[in-house]
Design brief:
Layout (H helix, E strand, L loop, with lengths): L2 E5 L5 E5 L3 E8 L2 E9 L6 E8 L9 H18 L7 E2 L8 E8 L1
Parallel strand pairs: 1-6
Antiparallel strand pairs: 1-2, 3-4, 4-5, 5-7
Length: about 110
């Protein structure tokens, strides 16, 4: 199983599995939602990882900023597909860090 790695300002990382991901979206310039093809038995709920960034991407609020974040996450997922080695870092912008990652059925 491959993993992606999201850097925190403390030097720590949050790891997320790159398996069974069906969609990545940005709800705004500093929040990404990674949806997994895993349900809790209800048709209307799937496992989602909500990634909160410490600061919005450059060009805060712009469509271009959210596209850059989404592409960075998708690129790391693509590389990690089928990997069994070290987690693939998400190439965030310089000085950009994750504050939290929350997994929940939503």
């Amino acid at each position: 199983m491959g993993y992606i790695s999201l850097a925190k300002s403390t030097g720590d990382v949050d790891l997320l599995p790159a398996e069974n991901i069906v969609h990545v979206s940005m709800t705004d310039a500093d929040t990404a939602v990674i949806e997994y093809g895993v349900s809790d038995g209800y048709d209307d709920k799937s496992l989602q990882a909500t990634v909160e960034f410490a600061t919005a991407w450059a060009g805060e609020g712009s469509k271009a900023a959210t596209v850059v974040a989404r592409i960075a996450i998708n690129n790391a997922i693509s590389i990690a597909g089928g990997a069994s080695g070290p987690a693939i870092p998400v190439q965030l912008q310089a000085g950009q860090y994750v504050t939290s990652v929350t997994l929940a059925f939503a």
